[in-house]
Input
Amino acid sequence: MKRVVAGIIIENGKLLVCQRTRHQTMPLKWEFPGGKIEEGEQPRDALRRELEEELGILAKIGNEIVRIQHEYPNGGKVELRFFEVREYQNEIENRIFKDIQWTMPKDLPSYDFLEADLTLVHDLANGKFL
Output
């Protein structure tokens, strides 16, 4: 099972969402920034590293919001751990995505998110967790 971490970056009541490029797996889908946990890496350390690589920020990783296990129709299994990020240093810069957007939680369902993120997307849109 692939182990993944993602950050729910919150600023002024809005959340940062990121769109994959057309060259990535599941092209043009929206997601929360993050990535795979490397062998021997702690989840918070993995997220800190991923956010620096993808967005150029030094993030203070907050509480774990939720942990989701998802199996894709092709048989791929993933465990996602989502963490709150309310503080970071440096300006956010888009280093790898097709697009990044700040959006209100209620507007999240209008984005074409990865299947594994949909439960969390709907929970956030309905005011849960934040």
Observations:
- The mean pLDDT is 96.
- The beta strands are 2-11, 14-19, 30-31, 34-36, 58-60, 64-71, 77-85, 87-89, 99-103.
